[in-house]
Amino acid sequence: MLIVVLSSVILSYGGVSVFVIIFSIYPIALVLFQEANIPKRVIPGAIMLGAGSFTMTTLPGTPALTNIIPTKYLGTTTTAAPMLGAICALIMFTAGMLIFTAYIKKLKANGEVFALGEKDKAIGLSDVNMDDLPPFGLSVIPIIPIVGTILGIRFSGIDIDSVYSVVIALLLGSVLTFLLFRKRLTEPKEALRTASEGSISAIMNTSSIVGFGGAIRLVPAFQQFVAFATGLSFHPLISAALAVNIIAGITGSSSAGITIFMDSMAQNFLSMGIEPQLLHRIAAMAAGVLDSLPHAGPNVTFLMVTGLTFKEGYPGIFFATCIVPLIGLICALLLAFMGVC
Known about the structure:
Layout: H1 2-13, H2 18-36, H3 43-51, H4 54-57, H5 65-74, H6 82-109, H7 127-132, H8 136-140, H9 143-156, H10 162-181, H11 188-217, H12 220-230, H13 236-251, H14 254-264, H15 266-270, H16 276-287, H17 297-306, H18 310-337
Helix pairs in contact: 1-2, 1-3, 2-3, 2-17, 3-18, 5-14, 5-16, 6-18, 9-10, 11-14, 13-14, 13-16, 14-16, 16-18
């Protein structure tokens, strides 16, 4: 369980898309969970705990879209509220591991064991595959310039747009990856084709989200919702968190939720005296709470890949991407009220 979570954390913090992580980690998780006799239905939640919770919204410097979007509206950086983010990430990781440890014990007590699905028999890693893999240390090296560049630009005070800093960091990581493993790239054309398709898909998805947000702003009912959210008699930070949560839940996307919120409400909340760094981090964390309801795209994709039904696989996803982020968000609000930033 811990190996799967940490592997997902490393890839996610290194800028790898959740959709790619699903396909990358699933075969490894199958081998590990089979050896530990952990029910297969836990795998989606385990991977999403590492890739779709604190690394996506909470860890300072994460290159996830949900963490980048606020920088364009608030003038912040991807490392906004670093102390608060780091503490909450640790809390979310710990809470997630405790929840899943209890969940696995309950499943085993009910007599559930690991069982391969029909699709899984063709996925498993053989000893030959394992022997052909590069050393672990060498595989981790490309992530170092990604994280190092993002954090280095932030703490050195270099005046550069946060989006460009992430682009530069990911470009360095990609170039280094190619230089280190070019001899292992047996089909470069196929790799370029797959990467291009993935990037175009990501660009189109992001563009559609921005367009959707622009259309939503023009709907009279949404203007009423803006007035409702900004007029709540809670502390402005709590009102902002609730607003982002609701929008992310409706759209089924954290990036859509935070884009619409930033585009239509951020200035209203800033005018209430909220510190931009706090609004950035709280909004990003709130966007990752209700974004993973059953209709969210990654959930459908993950269950399709694993061959699990919603009844089997979704409880773990819900724990990892809704309950754990909610715990983190509550802790973040408490820390913000205590002056931690």
